[in-house]
Write a structure and sequence with these properties.
- By secondary structure, the protein is an all-alpha fold.
- The protein has one domain.
- The protein is built from 1 helix and no strands.
- The radius of gyration is 31 Å and the shape is rod-shaped.
- It starts with a helix and ends with a helix.
C-alpha cells in the first residue's frame, strides 16, 4: 500500500514539475508576443503619421494648383 502511495506522490511531483516547465515556456511566449505586438503598434503609428503627412502634402499641392488657375 505504501509503495502505491509513494508512486502516486512521485507521479504528482513529476506532473507539477512538468506543469512548471510548461508555464515558464508559455510565459516566455507571451512576453515575445507582447514585444511583437508593441513593435507592430509602433509601426502602425509610424505609418499613420506618414499617411497624414502625405495627405497634407497632397492637399497643399492641390491648393497651389488651384491658385495657379490653369486653363
Amino acid at each position: 500500500m505504501f509503495k502505491s502511495f509513494d508512486e502516486k506522490i512521485a507521479l504528482a511531483i513529476e506532473k507539477v514539475n512538468s506543469l512548471k516547465e510548461e508555464k515558464a515556456t508559455l510565459e516566455r511566449k507571451v512576453t515575445l508576443l507582447e514585444e511583437q505586438l508593441d513593435e507592430k503598434n509602433q509601426e502602425v503609428e509610424r505609418l499613420s503619421s506618414e499617411k497624414a503627412s502625405a495627405k497634407d502634402q497632397v492637399e497643399s499641392i492641390l491648393k497651389l494648383l488651384e491658385t495657379l488657375d490653369i486653363k
